[in-house]
Specification:
Length: about 475
């Protein structure tokens, strides 16, 4: 099939554009906010090691499967799955992967925008010098003050959602690709600068030691589960985001230098994305933990690590206004390139059903925005309104991240490994090494479904057991 066969959405103009976009999707709040706080909470080195193993052994093979299905189908996850199910002569119900994924993306987008909205406020606040010389209590009060202000949070949520949908509305090559071409390199430059800065702080050695010294006595079953779940979230797996990005991936590209066409290898491309994602997570840790130790703070702060502890550190360090502002710009950019991928499966589906892209983006953005209001209120007026696993926000997060993503990832692995014709998968992947192909196949057939089932059950038992 040539690029011209897919006129509905357009294609990435190069393999590099796909890598940037998928890396943009993968790198986000999951890397910069969640990964360090998990690493801190679960004791450092041993958790990091298990997380890295999960990325390599389960995350990468499932990502390969997702890109492969997407490129084979060439459409939104719903239509891709309908098409592939028909080709494999199995029930149309496999399209459920696409529907569930679109819904999960919707739900995640609704609260992702709210949390990302906090970074907008923090950029502004930080740039004003709002954290200069602040105390621990003061920083916490800052964070809580923001949460208590529903109008402020709603405003930030609204601004972030508009930003996201504006990019999505502009389309694949003019919107998404343009945005990530600016955002991703910027992000890497900023992060490298901050790691260099962190290496000059007195706590650097301690921070590095905390992240890489593996003490297995600290590793619990729960930590292993958290590491696997985090591997899924951080690579954007299980809801079709990577599948729809794969659908925009050309099979062959013209080499700029030689002018010859080359096949675009899925496996090596995914390898690069996973590597970049991992480097950003580790880089974020290498900024955050040295800063934590340099300021005599605790690594096990929990979710507040990013929003309470770091501003406190920025408030104390020389040039903290600049470093802090740059850091939150970095977080905001990475969140934006992730959030555009959360809405894309749904937008692509609506576009295939005949809606114009701007209108589809408006519909998706508006709906997610409305659901997001529930999350905004979960931090103030509805703070004490709890049911099932907690506040409205916690329920949405749990439903989408802990239940729907693992389930989606598992079904994707099963479809790619058991349902789809073996020859088709092998042809689409076109892997040079047969041994590597057999390893991939074994993982998507057996290892990945079992591992995800374990996460899934754990989440369920945790919810029931309280
Ligand atoms: N991976 C992103 C992060 O780490 C979040 C994200 C974007 C995501 N798209 C996704 C998570 C799809 C799950 C599924 O912040």
């Amino acid at each position: 099939m040539k690029q011209g066969d897919k006129p509905v959405h357009g294609m990435w103009t190069s393999r590099w554009a796909f890598i940037l976009a998928a890396t943009g999707s993968a790198v986000g709040l999951g890397n910069i906010w969640k990964f360090p706080y998990f690493a801190g909470e679960y004791g450092g080195g041993a958790f990091v090691l298990v997380y890295l193993l999960c990325i390599a052994l389960v995350g990468v093979p499932i990502m390969v499967a997702e890109v492969m299905l997407g490129r084979k189908g060439g459409m939104s996850p719903v239509h891709t799955m309908i098409k592939l199910a028909a080709e494999s002569k199995v029930s149309r119900r496999w399209a459920g992967i696409g529907y569930m994924g679109a819904l999960a993306g919707f739900l995640i987008l609704s609260f992702y925008s709210v949390i990302a909205g906090w970074t907008l406020y923090y950029i502004w606040d930080m740039a004003q010098g709002g954290f200069q010389g602040i105390s621990a209590a003061g920083s916490l009060a800052h964070f809580e003050g923001m949460q208590a202000n529903a109008w402020l949070m709603l405003g930030c949520h609204t601004a972030f959602m508009i930003l996201t949908m504006w990019v999505v509305a502009r389309g694949v090559s003019r919107g998404l690709e343009k945005a990530v071409q600016v955002l991703m390199p910027l992000l890497f430059v900023l992060l490298i600068g901050l790691v260099v800065y962190a290496s000059t702080t007195p706590g650097f050695a301690q921070g590095v030691n905390f992240m890489f010294h593996t003490d297995f006595s600290k590793l619990s079953g729960k930590a292993v589960m958290a590491a696997l779940g985090q591997a899924f979230f951080t690579l954007s797996l299980g809801m079709g985001a990577i599948m729809v990005y794969g659908a925009y991936m050309p099979r062959e590209v013209k080499d700029r230098r030689t002018g010859q066409t080359r096949r675009v290898s899925i496996v090596s491309t995914v390898g690069i994305i996973a590597l970049l994602d991992t480097l950003v997570a580790l880089g974020a840790g290498l900024v955050i933990f040295p800063v934590v130790f340099s300021n005599g703070l605790e690594p096990s702060q929990g979710p507040g690590l990013l929003f309470v502890t770091l501003p406190l550190a920025f408030g104390q360090m020389p040039a903290g206004v600049i470093v802090g502002t740059v850091f939150f710009v970095l977080v905001m950019c990475s969140a934006l390139s992730s959030s555009i991928s959360l809405g894309e499966p749904m937008v692509a589906w609506l576009v295939e059903r005949g809606l114009g892209r701007p209108l589809a983006a408006l519909v998706v953005g508006l709906t997610a925005w409305v659901i997001g209001i529930g999350t905004v209120l979960s931090f103030n007026y509805w703070k004490d309104v709890t049911f099932l696993v907690g506040t409205f926000f916690q329920n949405i997060d749990f439903l989408a991240s802990s239940l729907m993503l693992p389930l989606g990832g598992m079904l994707i692995a099963i479809f790619a490994g058991w349902v789809m014709k073996e020859t088709q998968a092998r042809k689409e992947l076109a892997m040079k090494s047969f041994g590597l192909y057999m390893i991939w196949r074994a993982v998507v057939r057996i290892v990945a479904p079992l591992a995800v089932a374990a996460v899934f059950l754990n989440a369920l038992i945790g919810a029931l057991g309280g």
